[in-house]
Amino acid sequence: MYIVFLWGLPILFTWRSFSKMEKEKRREISKEIKAPLFILGVAPIIIGLLVILTGSVSAPGIKVLQHSGIGLVFFGWCVVWVEGLVNRNKSTAKSIAMIVMWIIDIVTYIYLF
């Protein structure tokens, strides 16, 4: 039942909010959703988090779901980081900080799971 709520409620609330919007706002959001950054960066992070939670709450704690979810999160994070590095010309200090945070997160995940 928890898994139905975990996946169903966000989808239901998103659909209801989208249907209540004006046509112009809907077009703008549809355009943003079709952008490569959303498809390769933001969507894997959101789906990855849902997959991690699904794997965590399943009866024996399905490790394959947890590992694939964390893989999606790291992939999405990497895509967003590279896009920010290429298009927004972030400073070297911020880039190094992101790399260090990424390495710390990977080491923490390996240590805890």
How many domains would you count in the coordinates? 1
Describe the largest sheet: none
Stretches where pLDDT is under 50 for at least 5 consecutive residues are: none
How widely separated are the two ends? 25 Å
Which class do the helix and strand fractions yield?
mainly alpha
Mean pLDDT: 84
> What overall form do the CA principal axes indicate?
flat
Textual characterization of the structure:
By secondary structure, this protein is mainly α. The protein has one domain. It is 87% helix and 0% strand. It has five helices and no strands. The protein has helices at residues 2-20, 23-33, 36-57, 63-87, 92-112. The longest helix has 25 residues, at 63-87. It is flat, with a radius of gyration of 17 Å.
